[in-house]
Automatic annotation (TrEMBL):
MF terms (GO), sorted A to Z: fatty acid synthase activity
Keyword set, alphabetical order: Multifunctional enzyme, Transferase
Classification via SUPFAM superfamilies: FabD/lysophospholipase-like (SSF52151), Thiolase-like (SSF53901)
Source species: Streptomyces sp. ID05-A0024
Protein name, entry field: Polyketide synthase
Ketosynthase family 3 (KS3) domain sequence ranges: 1-79
Pfam families for the chain: Acyl_transf_1 (PF00698), KAsynt_C_assoc (PF16197), Ketoacyl-synt_C (PF02801)
Keyword Transferase in annotation: yes
GO BP annotations listed: fatty acid biosynthetic process
Highest taxon, organism lineage: Bacteria
């Protein structure tokens, strides 16, 4: 399973179907589900490839992704417009060059110099590389490590000059160096819908810090509710269900507060707690 990238496979599949004008068959479906009335509408499974040529009607496709946690996403794809085959008029005036930042990073200052020199050699050996592509790749496809530098250039020659100066450790206009500042920790807790039967019971029984916090939350709630927090989470007979909104919301609050207390006991101090 491709984890968080799972939905991308469906998007790629439909982009290729639009490009080639062919709908691929649905894989691993031998018998349609008996829970669906396939005869009541026009929806059907594709058991074999079907041509999908371009026509006067714009082709569109929907791609759905359903996460095991309950997250649902739906993307609508539309075929690209037909490009105008007429070339743009040449005015004789050159387009102004774009100013592009190229990022370089490494674990140490010495490694940063080496990385800059390697990039300079790579670009020198490949004169056809686009400055915009190099800048984009340096941001989107490379890990950003602790020691960092940005080389800002408007053309290839300027970029090579900046990289050469960076590799030599010589200050020059258009090159900025620095070190990353450590990020802050923020605890983000989910809302209603994240609960389950037996939630927090194992931690309650195994962690004294968590148990003390849950007991304190239960005591704080006792003046406002007619049920016991521990009874609800342990599904004690007669206790209300977590399906009730007036029960699950306070219960989730208590679990979140206690989880934050538990993480703090391990030395993880958040800058903010959201939930």
């Amino acid at each position: 399973h491709s984890s968080t990238a799972a939905g991308v496979a469906g998007v790629i599949k439909m982009v290729m179907a639009l490009r080639h004008g062919m709908l691929p068959p649905t894989l691993h479906v031998d018998t349609p589900s008996p829970h669906v009335d396939w005869s009541s509408g026009e929806i059907e499974l594709l058991t074999e490839a079907q041509k999908w040529p371009a026509s006067e009607r714009v082709r569109r496709a929907g791609v759905s992704s359903f996460g095991v946690s309950g997250t649902n996403a739906h993307v609508i794809l539309e075929e690209a417009p037909v490009e105008d085959p007429t070339p743009a008029e040449d005015t004789g005036e050159p387009n102004p060059p774009a100013v592009v930042p190229v990022l370089v990073s490494a674990r140490s200052e010495a490694a940063l110099r080496q990385q800059a020199d390697r990039l300079r050699a790579h670009l020198t050996a490949r004169p056809g590389l686009s400055l915009l592509d190099v800048g984009f790749s340096s941001v989107a496809t490379r890990a950003q490590l602790e020691r960092r530098a940005a080389v800002v250039a408007s053309d290839r020659a300027g970029l090579l000059t900046g990289l050469e100066s960076l590799a030599a450790g010589e200050p020059v206009d258009g090159v900025v160096e620095g070190s990353s500042v450590g990020g802050k920790a923020v605890f983000v807790f989910p809302g209603q819908g994240a609960q389950w039967v037996g939630m927090a019971v194992e931690l309650w029984d195994s962690s004294s810090v968590f148990a003390e916090s849950m007991a304190a939350c239960g005591e704080a709630l006792s003046s406002f509710v007619d049920w016991r927090l521990e009874d609800v989470l342990r599904s004690v007979e007669g206790a209300p269900s977590l399906e009730r909104v007036d029960v699950v919301q306070p219960a989730l609050w208590a679990v979140m507060v206690s989880l934050a207390r538990l993480w703090r006991s391990y030395g993880v101090e958040p800058s903010a707690v959201v939930g």
